[in-house]
């Protein structure tokens, strides 16, 4: 099991098992087993929104610990897009332009 901290300092666990594979398939329609064939990695590289959806589906059990995440999926995607961009540049992730939506 791997962990990472988000910009708010919250610790998230990433555990890939049969339950996670089924959850990703149910929520995104993607099959994590495609990583063995090498097709999933290419798809996730080309589509950062899909990458965010897959990562969120994997971390979904942790979501119950952080209620703010359930109410702000746009902010989650914005952070993940920032993270993907930062990784591509070889730098650390930042909150960038991830502002809270109006009314929240």
Key terms:
104 residues; mainly alpha; 6 helices; globular; disordered C terminus
Q: Which percent bin holds the helix content?
A: 55-70%
Rg over alpha carbons: 14 Å
Report the span from N to C terminus: 33 Å
- List the secondary-structure elements in sequence, H or E: EEHHHHHH
The geometry reads as globular
Outline:
With 104 residues, this protein is mostly helical. The chain contains six helices and two strands. Helix content is 59%, strand content 8%.
Give a verbal description of the structure.
This protein is mainly alpha-helical. The protein has a domain at 2-66. The protein is built from 6 helices and 2 strands. Strands 1-2 form a two-stranded antiparallel sheet. A hairpin with a 5-residue loop joins strand 1 and strand 2 (11-14). Helix 1 (18-28) packs across helix 4, helix 3 (39-46) packs across helix 4 and helix 4 (48-63) packs across helix 6 (73-89). Residues 99-104 have low confidence and may be disordered.
């Amino acid at each position: 099991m791997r962990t990472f901290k988000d910009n708010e300092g919250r610790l998230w666990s990433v555990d890939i098992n049969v339950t996670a594979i089924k959850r990703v398939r149910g929520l995104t329609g993607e099959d994590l087993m495609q990583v063995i064939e090498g097709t999933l990695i290419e798809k996730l590289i080309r589509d950062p929104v899909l990458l965010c959806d897959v990562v969120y589906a994997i971390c979904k059990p942790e979501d119950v610990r952080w209620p703010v995440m359930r109410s702000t999926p746009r902010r989650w995607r914005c952070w993940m897009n920032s993270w993907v961009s930062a990784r591509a540049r070889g730098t650390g992730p930042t909150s960038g332009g991830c502002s809270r939506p109006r009314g929240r």
